[in-house]
Write a structure and sequence with these properties.
Layout (H helix, E strand, L loop, with lengths): L1 H19 L4 H12 L5 E2 L3 H4 L2 H4 L4 E8 L2 E3 L7 E8 L2 E3 L6 H5 L11 H6 L5
Parallel strand pairs: 1-5
Antiparallel strand pairs: 2-3, 2-4, 4-5
């Protein structure tokens, strides 16, 4: 009887400990950055800093980054959503929101273009 009682207590304690230590949102983000390496900053397109896209888009290199929980990574991440951005000398930049960009720049893949949440998370250049 004593062994059964201690077994039940240890199982209950283990269950309580496991549920108390369940990762929250913040812990998940820390784990993700530890697994995937440091994230990268994505900047918004700015005509004042990047120039008119009609004249300059050929100088920008389309590249795919991977979004996980609102963070972006340069290398493939399991479960990450592919987002196509431009790589410039200043870093990673979202394509301009002009609908003609994807029609003009045939290097862009329409399936991987950024969505509204990507644009809302983008940083402004200092």
């Amino acid at each position: 009887m004593r062994i059964a009682k201690w077994s039940a207590v240890s199982i209950a304690a283990g269950f309580a400990l496991a549920t108390a230590c369940a990762p929250g949102y913040r812990a998940t983000r820390i784990t993700a950055s530890a697994q995937f390496g440091p994230g990268i900053d994505i900047y918004s397109y700015s005509a004042a800093q990047d120039g008119d896209w009609h004249a300059n888009y050929r100088q920008w290199t389309p590249t795919t980054v991977y979004e996980v929980n609102g963070s972006y990574y340069p290398s493939q991440v399991r479960g990450g959503r592919e987002v196509q951005v431009y790589r410039t000398s200043g870093g990673y930049m979202l394509p301009p929101r002009d609908k003609n960009v994807s029609r003009t720049d045939k290097r862009l893949d329409a399936k991987r273009l950024p969505n509204g949440s990507d644009y809302s998370r983008a940083h402004n250049r200092p």
